[in-house]
Amino acid sequence: MAEESTPSLNVRQAVPFLRVSSMESSLRFYLDGLGFRMAKNWIVEGEVRWCWLEIGDAALMLQEFRTEGENSWKPAGKVGEGVSICFICEDALALYREFRSRSIEASTPFVGNGMWVTGVKDPDGYRLEFESETETPEETLFSESEV
After folding, report:
1. Considering only CA atoms, which of 31, 33, 32 is closest in space to residue 53?
2. pTM for the complete prediction?
3. Domain residue spans in the chain?
4. What is the per-residue burial (b if ≥16 Cβ within 10 Å, else e) of 72-88?
5. Average confidence (pLDDT) per 10 residues, the chain, 147 residues
6. N or C: which end of the chain has fewer CB within 10 A?
């Protein structure tokens, strides 16, 4: 009897693949602003066409969509609208402070579902949420003056 395939043991990771309108703007945001590092890339004629970015144990991929010619695509609306990616962290408040120090507009942290949550929007409108577990009461808003 042949062993049955077990999909749950075969799947190792989910990596969001974001289509972006400007690789240059996106790389500036993710690398310089949020602190991701580029682990893999595909370069054509000196330009990054695709990349794999990592922060801690999390990853995502970016590729600039072409608006003309072969394999072109024009989105019907704003590319990142309605898309949220949650990153579970050790300390979302520390990331909030770090992002703000790099002039990234991060939302004021609040407690939701037992986690501190702060978020940013990338240049295309993708929403990135950074969350960490807490015992702080639900709906608490973070205040720098309380630290």
Report:
1. 31
2. 0.88
3. 12-67+78-146
4. eeeeeeebbeeeebebe
5. 68 92 96 97 94 97 86 81 95 96 96 98 97 96 74
6. N
